[in-house]
Amino acid sequence: MSGINVKKLKVNELKEELQLRGLDTRGLKADLVIRLQSALEAEAAGEGDGPPIADVGEEGDQQNDIGGDAGDGDDVIIDNIDLIGAEEFVMKAELKKEQEQLKEEKEPQQPSAHHPEPANEWEAEQATQAKTEDNRHNRKRPYDEGRGYGYYEHREEKRGRSPQPPAEEEEEDFDDTLVAIDTYNCDLHFKVSRDRYSGYPLTIEGFAYLWSGARASYGVNKGRVCFEMKINEEISVKHLPSSEPDPHVVRIGWSLDTCNTQLGEEPFSYGYGGTGKKSSKCKFEDYGEKFGENDVLGCYIDFDSGEEVEMAFSKNGKWLDVAFRVSREELAERPLFPHVLVKNCAIEFNFGQKEEPFFPVPEGYTFIQKVPLENRMRGTVGPASKADCELLMMVGLPASGKTTWALKHAEEHPAKKYNILGTNAIMEKMKVMGLRRQKNYSGRWDVLIQQATQCLNRLIQIAARKKRNYILDQTNVYGSAQRRKMRPFEGFQRKAIVICPTDEDLKERTLKRTDEEGKDVPDHAVLEMKANFVLPEAGEFLDDVTFIELKREEADTLVKQYNEEGRKAGPPPDKRFDNRQGGFRGRGAPYQRYDNRGGPQGGRGGYQSQGGNFRGGEVEGFCGIYLVLNVISFCVSVDNVLLSLIQYAQQWQQYYQNQSQWNQYYSQYGNYSQGSQGTQ
After folding, report:
1. pLDDT higher for 264 or 146?
2. Among residues 199, 274, 363, 631, which one has the fewest Cβ atoms lying within 10 Å of its Cβ?
3. Cα 23 from Cα 16, distance rounded (Å)
4. CA–CA separation, 342 vs 211, rounded Å?
């Protein structure tokens, strides 16, 4: 323990080390550093014999520890536990803390107890921003089943705030010759433990709908090799609706290094799931038995069986026979890697690092960790620094072809392992039995879409701390959004990819997408994007700008036409008409709003002018003030002016309180297909 560099540890790691020593984990990061440093110095001086060790007996006792208060600020004393056991204990404590955080978010009115101080300015600002957004999102909005993710993405783009650049996530020293979970080859929302043999997905908010996958750092292409995986816990996700199918599932198997993390949903990706199904190429067939919490799965691959490579599985030591056969010629000596895909479950691997396996290994098979290093193939290694990382920001209107280009570019450059950050990519991770959600979702579609958008915002925050290559697949037409989204990625190679087809091509693509997938962005939202469309330029926050279809000169001319078209259309309906108690609102003086919140008794009823200083209790009061100004200016009859103004007010009041007219106006936006997805 004396070799620990205390200053390089993160807050959670400092708390973990303090917990192992039975020390207080409360306070700021500086306090934790001093406390741990003192403990280490005491151990080095012989005043202590290292951290107290807890006696963890049977598996059931470990499970009881999950409900403990570790990591919540209380003193934790641990006796008799080895390093792996301690790691599992801490991970379960983190799961418990995450669940409590979700509970607090659901009960914002209750006074909270003690909240730990943020460790740095980045965390403090993110906490403040999250609180502001939560308060803002809690406001009820009109229900609109027809709006797809493009609309909510557009809404988020307009109102987001610019975050500070995050601190770079430091990589811990790890023996790269060991087979472990690859922190570069997993989903951003999959949390890998410090020992890299166990992990779990984020489950707060909409993340509970998402699959989360990870691959091992080494693969094999010869011999008879195996590994084990145990499901340690099915994480509580009470915030999911009761109609959610299979909220706790794990899929285990093998895949190529070039495959995505959705195990079993593309060629050369082979998975066995807890629903008792096997899958490859998104084809699901019955196989084996169902499995869940506390079950141990054995995964076996045999390259020596002849012309075909065979993959088999076992459950709690029971052999389940061969699940997949693939020709050696198709594999072309490419290595297959251990792969797991989880949904709200915490898992643990045994690649051979344990002294004893969970269950006896069939004769002839060797744990992958014990395969000689020269016979193992290392997966793709990530960039060494942020300067080696690339961020491509897509820029373009809905249906312009951004997602199509992003997918093609990622496929053409497999070595870069681009992580595509977009709502469409989020929805891909919400599949049920390989089918997209809108094919079989029974809940409110608009709520799910909003949660997917929130997940994307959190993933972008996580991405800025990890050294990877990204494609930001959103519209990004607002100049403010471009700056805001690039700022956290300071130090990356930041590039903009502008997809600006001709207006005829855009209309054709929009119609095609609407016919195939339904419309998910209302016309008024597209018009507002056109009015605010800004072409990015290389400079302060962008290193390079590439135009894929129309070049800059042609694109600039077209965007100016879009700006003019959007501005002539005026503000969108939700800015012109406020249906919260009826009325007209706008940014300029030409718009007046009749406010009937005061009722017939007076009080606050009457006209309020967005561009002036008038706010009366009754129509007559307003007219009296207005009359004085007009008498001075125009010397007209008091009686005639009063009568005309009263008639004018009555006409506007009757018009704007006629809700049927506005409902008819909005009905054109309410008939879009619920299954709208779009490729942006």
Report:
1. 264
2. 363
3. 10
4. 6
Q: Is the Cα torsion angle 154, 160, 165, 169 positive or negative in sign?
A: negative
Rounded Cα–Cα distance for residues 454 and 459 (Å): 9
Cβ contacts of 577 within 8 Å, gap of 6 or more:
583, 584, 585, 656, 662
What values do phi and psi take at 460, rounded to 5? -65, -40
The candidate with the shortest Cα–Cα distance to 66, out of 200, 244, 242, 197, is: 200
pLDDT in tens, 96-109: 555 555 555 445 44
List, in sequence order, the alpha helices (H) in 241-388: 328-331
| SS3 per residue for 92-114 | HHHHHHHHHHHHHHHCCCCCCCC
Angle at 663 between CA 660 and CA 668, to 5 degrees: 140
Main-chain phi, psi angles of 204, to 5 degrees? -70, 150
What pLDDT does residue 172 have? 67
Mode of pairing for the β-strands spanning 606-609 and 377-378? unpaired
518 residue type, one letter? G
CA atoms of 188 and 460, how far apart (whole Å) = 9
**Vertex 229 angle, CA 225 and 233, to 5°:** 175
Angle subtended by helix axes 619-634 and 638-656, to nearest 10: 130
Give the pair of three-digit tokens for residue 312.
Answer: 């088999």
pTM for this entry: 0.64
Query: What residues contact 75, with CB distance under 8 A and at least 6 apart?
Result: 22, 23, 24, 25
Instruction: Give bridge partners of residue 391 from the DSSP assignment.
Output: 470, 494
**Rounded to the nearest 5 degrees, what angle is found at the Cα of 174, between the Cα atoms of 171 and 175?**
150
- Average pLDDT score, the chain: 75
